[in-house]
Design a protein that fits this description.
Blueprint lengths: L4 H22 L6 E2 L13 E13 L6 E6 L4 E6 L1 H9 L11 E11 L2 E6 L5 E3 L1
Parallel strand pairs: 1-2, 4-6
Antiparallel strand pairs: 2-3, 2-5, 3-4, 5-6, 5-7
Amino acid sequence: MKVTDDKILKIALITSLIGIIGLIITTPTIEVKEVEIGQITRSMIDEEVAIKGVVENVQALSNGETYILTVNDGTGRIQVVIFQSAVVEIQESETPLDTFKEKHVEVIGTITEYNSKMEIILQNSNSLKIV
């Protein structure tokens, strides 16, 4: 059997379509791991997680473009960092960040470490919800 450019092209297209269909089928089943704040350790740095808890404090940093929420779920406290892009999106949805204080929220973000403390970096404005 002679391998021609047409056959290679057909094989590549079929393989690509099978891969794309596989991604479409499996993507909805991928879920973010929900953890308790007390379970978060250094070994989880760079993992994407979901937490639920009560916002104890909302603090704007001196630049006014970054906010820090202190979230408590009963097992511990953690700071959630919200950078300017997400802050702008949240404020455009006409929800001031101060309204999250003392509310029960769900946060999806990436675990990081800053000054020897664990933090969660908010992914985007859709990753912070009042529940």
